[in-house]
């Protein structure tokens, strides 16, 4: 919103309409020039800020992509290690279970044999 410079009535009376209007116009021209320069400077600074922000966001995204990839690799490696350990434990459990089942059925067969021979 531009502000137009105005001078007092005494100023107009002392220096006349022409000189005072010329001075007012000069003040307004200087003000408009400064405003335009300031606007241009602000736009340039904002463009630099925006470019820097974009660059930093791109670096941030790249850093997080690397971190997520590392985390994913760790999770996959942990999953593989867990799967191997679980398979090994399950194999041992099956082996132990087969031993117990054989021992149980062997003792049942022996007990049935003893009972059959006593009759």
Taking pLDDT < 50 over at least 5 consecutive residues as the criterion, the unreliable ranges are none
Overall helicity: over 70%
Shape: rod-shaped
Structural class: mainly alpha
Largest sheet: none
What is the β-strand count? 0
Rg, please? 46 Å
Mean pLDDT: 89
SS summary, helix count: 2
Describe the protein.
It is a single chain. With 119 residues, the protein is mainly alpha-helical. It has one domain (9-118). Helix content is 92%, strand content 0%. The protein has two helices and no strands. The longest helix has 102 residues, at 17-118. The protein is rod-shaped and about 150 Å long. The model has no long low-confidence stretch (mean pLDDT 89).
Summarize the SSE layout with pairings:
Layout: H1 9-15, H2 17-118
Give the gist of this structure.
By secondary structure, the chain is mainly α. The protein has 2 helices and no strands. The relative contact order is 0.04.
Essential attributes:
rod-shaped, mainly alpha, 119 residues
